[in-house]
Amino acid sequence: MKYIALSHRQCVKIKDIPVLPYGAFLHQNSSLPHDERYHCVSYFACPEEGRFRFICCMADDKEGVVMVSSCVDACSNPLPSFTAVHASFHLFEREIHENFGIPYLDHPWLKPVRSGNYPFFRIGGESLHEIGVGPIHAGVIEPGYFRFTCDGERILHLEIQLGFQHRGVESLMIKKKHTNQRILLAESIAGDSTVGHCTAFAAAWESLCDYHTPYPLLWTRALALELERIAMHTADLSAMCGDIAYQLGNAVYGRLRTPVINFFQLWTGNRFARTLIRPACLFHPFTGSLSDRLARLLTDFEHDFTPMGNFLFNMPVALSRFEKTGTVGLNSALEIGTTGMAARSSGLQRDIRFSHPDEIYRTLHHRPLLYETGDVLARTRLRHDETLQSIGHIRQLLRTPPPAENLEHQLSPAATDSFALSLTEGWRGEICHCLLTGSDGHPVCYKITDPSFHNWMALALAVRNNPISDFPICNKSFNLSYCGVDL
Asked: What pLDDT score was predicted for residue 143?
C-alpha cells in the first residue's frame, strides 16, 4: 500500500502525497472499508492543468491516522468506480461526476447531487403511489425534497434530493483572499454547527501556517463543542417529543435548551457562538464569573433533564413510537459509511474524540457511547446520554481553565503547494475540512465534508417498510443538515 499517514491536523507538501495509477488507487482505497477500522473521511477531485488530481483520505480509527493517497488522470476514458466495490463512496463519486463530468463505467446510482432536473427512481404497479414532500418545508428548514414510493401506508422507497440553493461555499473559500473572510464562511456552513465547522477550519488553517495550537484555544474549542452538543441534542429531544405529541417533553426540553444557547450569548455576544473561534486568536476569554455561571447552569439543567429522561424512556406510548422504528443495522451502517450519532446508534464506533483525539480529549479520557438496535429509540437515548456525558466533560474542563486573557498571535504565511486536513467531532458526527494551496499559499481547492453527507442514505434506508406516518420521527431522529450538503 502506498499512502502518507497524517494526523488529523497536519500539513504536508502535495508532492509528498503518493501518486498511484488509477487501478492501484481504486484497489487500495475501495478495499479498506470492508474492515470496520477504516472509513472514508473525504474523497474529491481538483482540476490540474488539463487533468484531475484525485485525493482519497481514509481514516484508520485504530491507529488514529488518516491515510492519504492520490491519482492524477486525464479522465479521457470512463473510470471504474469505487462504489461498485463499496457503497460508502457513492455520494463522493456522484459529486465528482456532477462537478467535472467525469464518467464512471459501473457506478450503480450515478445521479447528480445538486440538480434541479433530478431523475427520480420510479417503480411501476397499480397498488403503488408516490408522495412528494418539499422543497419548501415548514419553519426555517432549508430546502430539500423527499420522494416516497408507497404501497398503501407502507414506504417501499425514499429518495432524497438536496442542493437547491447552490451556495458555493467551497468556491468562495478559494475566491476570498483573507482568513477573516473564510472564517465567516465557515460560521455559515451549517448554522447549528458553527463551533464544529469553525473548529475544523481553524485547525486546518493553523496547521497550514505551522502554528502549534496552544492550550487556551484547544480548551475553549472543546468547551464550546460540548456546549453546542448539549444545546442541539436537547433541542432534538424537544422536537422528537413534539412529533409523538408528548407536549410535556416538548416543552421541558425546549425550555432547557434556551439557557444553554443564552450562555453562548453571554460569553460571545451570539447565541450560536459566532466570533468565538478564530485561527490563533481568542477574543472572548473564559472568566471566573463565566465559570461560576456555567457551573450553576449545568446543575439546574441536570436537575430537570434527568427526571424528564426517566419519564420519557419509561412511557409506554413513547416507547411504542420509538422502539423498532426506523432501524438501520450494523451491516447497513458499515456498508453506507455512516458516522457520528447515526453510526454509534447502530453499534459502529465512530467518534473523532476517541479515534483521532487532540490533547484535550485525551485528558478527558472520552469513550464513545454505543447502542446496537439502530432504531429511533437508540438515537433518542444516545442524545440523552451524550448530553449527560458532555456535562461531565465540561465539569472536568472547568477544573483546569486557561488564564482569562485575550490571545492574538500573528500567523506565518500559509505553506505553498501544500495539503492540510482537519477532523472535528461535531454534534452530528465527524466534520472534515481539506485544502490544497498553490504557489502563492492561497487555496486552490477546498473540500468540506459535513457529517450529513455520510448519513442521508441512512435515513432513506431507515424508513423502508415503515408506515409513512413514522417518517417525521425517523427524520428528526437523524436531524441531518440540508445546507451542510449544499456547498
From this structure: 79
| pLDDT per position as a tens digit, 17-73 | 999 999 999 999 999 999 999 999 999 999 988 899 999 999 999 999 999 999 999
Question: Which whole-number Å values give the CA distances from 185 to 15, 169, 176, 421, 462, in the listed order?
Answer: 29, 7, 10, 17, 32
The Cα diameter of the chain in Å comes to: 70
User: What are the structural domain ranges in the chain?
Assistant: 4-100, 169-478
pLDDT over threshold 70, residue 138: no
**Residue 307 grid coordinates:** 427526571
DSSP state of 321: H
Reported confidence tier of residue 470, pLDDT bands at 50, 70, 90 = very high
Which helix (H) or strand (E) segment is 391 a member of?
A: helix 376-397
How far apart CA 14 and CA 417 sit, in angstroms, is 6
Q: What is the mean pLDDT of the chain?
A: 94
Considering only CA atoms, which of 443, 437, 8, 432 is closest in space to residue 200? 432
Residue range 449-459: average pLDDT? 96
What is the DSSP track for 9-68?
TEEEEGGGS-B--HHHHHHHHHTGGGSTTEEEEEEEEEEETTEEEEEEEEEETTTTEEEE
Q: What is the CATH number of domain 169-478?
A: 1.10.645.10
Annotate 217-244 with DSSP letters as a single string. Answer: HHHHHHHHHHHHHHHHHHHHHHHHHHHT
- At 118, the amino acid letter reads Y
Q: What is the DSSP string of 348-388?
A: ----HHHHS--HHHHHHT------SS-SHHHHHHHHHHHHH
Closest CA to 73 of 26, 107, 13, 14: 26
Task: Reduce the secondary structure of 160-218 to three states and give it as a string.
Answer: EEECCCCCCHHHHHHHCCCHHHHHHHHHCCCHHHHHHHHHHHHHHHHHHCCCCCCHHHH
Q: Are 98 and 124 in contact (CB under 8 A)?
A: no
Whether the CB-CB separation of 55 and 43 falls below 8 Å is answered with: yes
Assign 334 to helix, strand or coil.
helix
Residue 116: its pLDDT value, please? Answer: 67
Per-residue pLDDT, averaged over 149-154, amounts to: 94
